[in-house]
């Protein structure tokens, strides 16, 4: 075989994928030096089962650091590592069941994890878990191809005092809102030389091969892709939150205010209809997010939100029936009051539900405060304007004419909602 300069250049450029003998994994940005690394022996890759090796490295000051296979907590095979109090570490196999604490998996299908040489707590308090898993190609919640080119992984970490326990079932405190990552690994680039602990070479300190050890937290070209899927999930969740909050705390109250303010039913109806459509968009995005994280309909926010949004469906009907009746009988009917009060109650419930959503997402306080202030100010405007409108109507109707009037028909003929000044020409 002739070795050309091109082939030398190509193998130099492609590096690991040709000579591939290094584990692969990221040091997620914002994780304060936490690094993950995964290695797959050729025998396991070809059989698509058998040992895989992984490493979790934590600087001092971490209560626990976890790695898992899967796209989200729900259904993931999770490996939680923490110090054991004797200079070594404990690795606990757990099952992800949504965004709640994963519990120690003691079933027969639990990940079979063995701690390897090189694990332990260093003198500076940093620690390393070198682990072999003999059955990580499948678990009760899913499976992973050991030769997958974009195998999904998750990671999470929690700063705090060392857990220092050998108890695999110890209760761990929840990670912060941003203290987790999702990434995919091209496992064909994580191939190690043989079925043995790959973390005893000098490379272990770089946190993985392929130059990812710098902890840049960005992937690309080296078999590691950070946040793929995760980032689109974050976008979906953010869109759900922004549209939902806008609809409940701003658009619906303003649309309601337009009715007494302008007195044109069709302006109100059109405005609320747009809000109504946006509400369903927010609902769809919310359902998608909840599915992704496995919390569909099992949290206060997702349950109340679903109920409130379904109840909103009757509002346009009530509004329309009210309108038809008004045109006929020239005064409010029971349906009118139902539409008005049902609408008000639902808007308030919707605003409360937005607050529950922010709580569920573990959102930063500044955002919670901003949301509360905006919702509060808009509702205050609504009730103040209503108050003035009522006062205005009292005054003007006692004066006999004018003031704040409704134009139900929208073609310029006014009527007084207090019925003292019905307009016969109202069609
Ligand atoms: C989800 C959609 C809707 C919501 C949340 C909603 C909400 C409200 C609220 C809170 C009020 C009371 C306003 C006030 O304090 O004066 C109101 C009044 C009214 N709405 Fe709607 N509305 C919706 C859709 C509609 C539609 C589609 C129509 C018409 C076809 C309509 C017709 C009216 C009318 C005519 C009034 C005035 C009733 C009166 O003061 O006698 N609404 N709406
Ligand atoms: C931690 O435990 C593993 C597995 O028993 C062992 O190989 C390793 O040497 C231990 N580390 C220390 C620092 O004792």
Automatic annotation (TrEMBL):
Cellular compartments annotated: Membrane
Q: Which domain of life is it from?
A: Eukaryota
Q: Which residues form the DOMON domain?
A: 36-160
The annotated regions of Gly residues compositional bias extend over 206-224
A Pfam family that the UniProt record links to this protein: Cytochrom_B561
Keyword Oxidoreductase included in the entry's annotation: no
- Transmembrane portions of the chain: 237-258, 265-283, 303-321, 341-361, 367-385
Record key words, sorted: Electron transport, Membrane, Signal, Transmembrane, Transmembrane helix, Transport
Chief subcellular location equals: membrane
Q: Name the InterPro entries for this protein.
A: Cellobiose_DH-like_cyt, Cyt_b561/ferric_Rdtase_TM, DOMON_domain
Family annotation (SMART domains):
B561, DoH
Ranges for the region named Disordered are 198-224
Which residue positions does the secretion signal occupy?
1-21
Report the GO terms under cellular component.
Answer: membrane
> Could you tell me what this protein is called?
DOMON domain-containing protein
């Amino acid at each position: 075989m002739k070795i050309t300069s091109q082939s030398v250049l190509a193998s130099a450029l492609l590096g690991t994928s040709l000579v591939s003998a290094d584990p692969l994994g990221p040091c997620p940005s914002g994780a304060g030096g936490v690094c993950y690394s995964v290695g797959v022996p050729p025998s396991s890759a070809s059989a698509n089962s058998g040992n895989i090796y992984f490493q979790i490295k934590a600087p001092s000051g971490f209560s626990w650091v976890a790695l898992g296979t899967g796209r989200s907590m729900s259904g993931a095979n999770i490996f939680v590592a923490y110090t054991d109090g004797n200079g070594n570490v404990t690795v606990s196999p757990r099952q992800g069941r949504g965004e709640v604490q994963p519990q120690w998996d003691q079933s027969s299908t639990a990940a079979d994890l063995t701690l390897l040489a090189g694990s332990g707590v260093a003198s500076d308090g940093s620690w390393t878990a070198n682990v072999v898993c003999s059955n990580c190609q499948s678990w009760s919640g899913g499976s992973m191809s050991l030769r997958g080119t974009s195998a999904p992984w998750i990671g999470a970490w929690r700063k705090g005092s060392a857990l220092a326990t050998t108890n695999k079932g110890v209760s761990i405190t929840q990670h912060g809102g941003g203290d987790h990552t999702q990434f995919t690994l091209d496992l064909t680039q994580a191939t190690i030389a043989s079925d043995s602990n790959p973390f005893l070479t000098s490379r272990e300190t770089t946190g993985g091969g392929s130059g990812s050890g710098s902890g840049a937290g960005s992937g690309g070209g080296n078999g590691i892709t950070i946040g793929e899927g995760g980032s689109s999930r974050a976008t979906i969740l953010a869109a759900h939150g922004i549209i939902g909050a806008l609809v409940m705390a701003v658009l619906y109250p303003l649309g309601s205010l337009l009715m007494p303010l302008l007195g044109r039913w069709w302006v109100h109806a059109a405005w609320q209809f747009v809000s109504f459509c946006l509400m369903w968009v927010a609902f769809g995005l919310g359902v998608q997010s909840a599915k992704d994280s496995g919390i569909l309909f099992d949290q206060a926010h997702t349950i109340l939100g679903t109920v409130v949004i379904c109840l909103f469906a009757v509002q346009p009907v009530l509004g329309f029936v009210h309108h038809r009746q008004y045109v006929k009988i020239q005064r409010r009917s029971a349906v009118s009051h139902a539409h008005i009060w049902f609408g008000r109650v639902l808007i308030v419930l919707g605003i409360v539900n937005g607050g529950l959503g922010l709580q569920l997402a573990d959102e930063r306080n500044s955002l919670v405060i901003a949301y509360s202030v905006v919702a509060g100010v808009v509702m205050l405007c609504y009730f103040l304007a209503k108050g003035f409108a009522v006062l205005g109507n009292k005054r003007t109707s006692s004066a006999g004419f004018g003031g704040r009037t409704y134009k139900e028909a929208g073609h310029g003929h006014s009527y007084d909602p207090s019925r003292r000044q019905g307009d016969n020409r109202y069609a």
